[in-house]
Amino acid sequence: MEDFADQIAKLCIEKYAKLNKTGKPSQTEWTVLSGIILKNSNDSLSLVALATGTKCLGEIDLINTELYEIGCRLNDSHAEVLCRRAFLRYLYEQIDLLLNDTSSDVFTMNNEKKIELNDGISFHFFTSQTPCGDCSIFLKDEFNENNAPPRKIGKYDYNDAGEVIVESCNKKEQIIRDIYRTGAKCVKTEKYQDPRLTGVNYHIIGPLRTKPGRGNPTLSLSCSDKMAKWNILGLQGSLLSILVPLIKMETITIGGKCPFSLEGMERGLYKRFNKENIHGLRIAQAKFSFKQQKSHERKYPCPSSIIWCAVKYRDTEIAVEGRKQGATKRRKGTSLLVTRRALFETFLRTCDKYYNFDCDIRHPKRITYLDCKKWSKNYQNLWNILKSESFRAWPSKPTHLQTFVL
After folding, report:
1. Residue 161 scores a pLDDT above 50
2. How far is the C-alpha of 183 from the C-alpha of 209, rounded, in Å?
3. Contacts 24+ apart (CB under 8 A), 20-25
4. Burial category of 183 from C-beta neighbours within 10 Å (exposed 0-12, middle 13-18, buried 19 and up)
5. Rounded to whole angstroms, how far apart are CA atoms 152 and 155?
6. What is d(CA 353, CA 374) in angstroms, rounded to the nearest whole number?
7. By the 8 A CB rule, do 220 and 72 touch?
8. Helix, coil or strand: residue 51
9. Phi, psi at 173, each rounded to 5°
């Protein structure tokens, strides 16, 4: 899969290079790049969604969200999450093309007036670094960039396996192995928490984790956890699952020149939940690397995000602190098209078209966002089973953020 991974990474990185400078990091800033690629039945590849981002809103920001902002502000602006939201916009446009009797790259309508995936297509996920959370926790001896020689930090010698060699009486008596660490914290309701001891005992593997926020804890689950959920329930989410079949990630490619462990990725995405690789997910690291990733020169996370998808209208958006760039409390401006509210509005509008297409999809005029999610019974039933069996500590978002109407 290595050659294919290189093609995936190259496609995303080249598209990023062609985007305008707005929203990109400065010389001292870093960001993460994620993309979703469509592979057609003729094996051609096309990029359909792309995003950058490193930030999340804290829990206090969510609690204090004013009425007009409900559903209009992004809680999680990590690249992987924004990329999936951009992908949802792309899918809605593909459905719209189908309902307008125009050829769609993704969907077709069967004889029973149900939407199906086109034959022979597949979707492939790229992210420029290992997802935050459980996937990022692994022994340092699994990554040694450019075969660097042992390095000395203070009184410790590091061998080429990333192990700390402690000398006593001029004899090397003890070896302390170290691990890569993640900023994501164990969910408070998890039974086991990070011991934060020396070396390999700093983290514990397995628990669900929340991302660090802007000065206060967040309710946003780590990208490892969210991608584990997508791997089982699909990329389409609850609303679109009412209209379309499961859309799975067939492969995940990690960018080059960053810490990577295949075992860590497999554990983080399904093995820690005692789940089999039910969809045959394949994972690899590419040789191509993203130049704007974190490094000694790029120490500060970029505050803005770029969100792009292969649609005709407003294909590129810039987000800062969960809002469209330039929007403030006093100057609201136009909302981002990947927010809960915007995607909810698109879903209802799509349902209306689908209903007019002689299908049995119809919604009440004043349905709330939360009620509409509950309407996706098959999806919600499977999600409830997963939460009871594997994702027990998955926290719920505040209800007031989900009970808005349009």
Report:
1. no
2. 9
3. 20/316, 22/306, 22/318, 22/325, 23/52, 23/304, 23/305, 23/306, 23/318, 23/319, 23/325, 24/52, 24/292, 24/302, 24/304, 24/306, 25/292, 25/298, 25/302
4. exposed
5. 7
6. 21
7. no
8. strand
9. -105, -25
Give the residue carrying structure tokens 């991608």.
227
Give how far the C-alpha of residue 129 lies from the chain's centroid of Cα atoms, to the nearest Å: 11
pLDDT, one tens digit per residue, over 170-182 is 444 445 579 999 9
* Residue 191, both tokens: 């039974």
Do residues 202 and 230 make contact, with C-beta atoms less than 8 angstroms apart?
no
Any idea what DSSP says for residue 297? S
Pairing assessment for the beta strands 152-153 and 54-56 based on DSSP bridges:
unpaired
The proportion of the chain whose per-residue pLDDT surpasses 90, expressed as a percent, equals: 69
Distance CA 55, CA 76 (A): 7
State the Cα–Cα distance between residues 218 and 58, nearest whole angstrom: 4
| C-alpha–C-alpha distance, residues 37 and 123, integer Å | 6
The Cα angle at residue 338 between residues 130 and 210, in degrees rounded to 5:
40
Q: What is the DSSP string of 298-362?
A: --EE-SEEEEEES-SS--EEEEETTEETT--SS---SPPTTSHHHHHHHHHHHHHHHHHTT-S--
pLDDT (average), residues 147-159: 37
Q: 46-56 burial by CB neighbour count: b if 16+ within 10 A, else e?
A: ebbbbbbbbbb
Tokens 């469209």 belong to residue: 324
C-alpha to C-alpha distance for 328 and 380, rounded to whole angstroms: 35
CB 177 within 8 A of CB 164: yes
Residue-wise burial string across 282-302, b where 16 or more C-beta atoms lie within 10 A, e elsewhere:
ebbbbebbbebbbeeebeeeb
